[in-house]
User: Fold this.
Amino acid sequence: MRQSSLVVVANRLPLDDNAAPDGACEWRRSPGGLAGALRAILEQTPATWVGWAGGVGPARQLSDIGGLRLRPVSLSEDDLRGYYEGFANSTLWPLYHDAVQQPVFDRNWWETYRTVNRRFAEAASEVAEPGAVVWVQDYHLQLVPQMLRDLRPDLLIGFFMHVPFPPPELYMQLPRRVELLRGMLGADLVGFQREQAAHNVAQLAQKLLGARATDDAIEVDGRTVRTGAFPVSIDVAEMRALAGRPDVLSQARQLRQDLGQPKRVLLSVDRLDYTKGIEHRLTAYSELLRDGHVKVRDTVMVQVAVPSRERVESYSDLRDRIEGEVGRINGEFGRVGEPAIHYLNQPFARSQLAALYRAADVMVVTPLRDGMNLVAKEFVAARGDDAGALVLSEFAGAAAELPQAFLVNPHDLDGLKETLLRAMCADPADLSGRMAAMREHLAGHDILSWARAYLTALDHTGSLAERLAGERTKASSVPWHR
Ligand code: ADP
Ligand code: F6P
Assistant:
């Protein structure tokens, strides 16, 4: 068994075992922000990534991606239902996102969640060399830090929560709240997207564990667990370079032409998830059309919504509702050859996403709650021309870093409509000032600086963070779908 000095443990591997139309296996980049963010820094680093490769049944052997080894963890059909679709995505996900959807508390899921967490902890323990750093990711694996500490007390263990961590009054609803809190606090450093989350955990540790706790340290079982905010980011250089490529710029021009050369293009790009506020956005847009503030002849909305967690009922119901609403809006306001909304359900290559970002006048990112929202950051990174407006929900982690966006409360429909109109009609000089400020912030806060900040805080010697920085300067020869 080959071992590594850095091990990342995440629910998904950075590639997804996706069935091709002919039934063959087709690897593609995993959906969502976490895999994309971590892939950007790890593909050139000697490390092992422990995770699920999609699908059910025994895991196949996977070849390395550059310096990155992949250690697949298999999931059975029952595991998938109890652990991933059940406890992770029907209990924790809605609860942690302000319960914008009612969380389901099903007692049968807990045992599976615990068993699968143990499987991940054992896999990590096998591939970690003595004294290694193991970095566990997200709500799927909240029990892993303590399990790993029990198996391997020699390891330095980090945990990062990519989604929001809820206020105590919501967290207290969780039937297994003590075990989950203890599990996470098995880490040496627990990182969150925002400071408020660290504050929430400190309050819960006092209340549920009787621990001494501040917003940056919690005393538990005779150990000090450090906590803090480390807002995740994107590969800014990659997106900037893609969006400046001549072929991508000509693709962006072509897109506007295909859309009928409208005066304004509004764009949204989301996983099809009820936290993303897609329905609120559609209602606001449809009311703007109805009130005559927006005309289909000169304004076009493009909604990219890639299907997600489709076997979970709340997700398939959401998809039905959204598709019904898009159909209604197009039926009512569209004209022959001119739909009011272009609705696209497909995954796009990075270069196609970059072209979409460059083709847009207004990027509409209005989640009801979001840990960070990397799409907002990708849009900013893509706008090297300092044009375009970003309408951004106050409830996305990204809002704390991008105050120059048109910030909005997506629950307030009138406010949302008014903000969309303001962004559509903004003066180009105003837009350029806002975009330049946001781009400047991102330039100093990219994915590498996130990983370095976290790993330096975890490993005081700083050697790991240094190594990441060094590896990053080498040219990439990694065969990724771009
Ligand atoms: P989440 O992690 O909840 O999915 P984020 O906005 O943080 O939300 O991250 C979403 C990531 O998925 C972004 O990197 C975005 O570019 C990518 N993405 C979203 N939609 C698509 C799509 N249709 N095709 C390819 N990538 C997509
Ligand atoms: O951080 C949110 C998250 O659960 C990530 O782990 C993942 O990147 C994304 O959402 C996509 O979700 P899933 O892995 O369930 O498709």
About this structure: The chain has 17 helices and 17 strands.
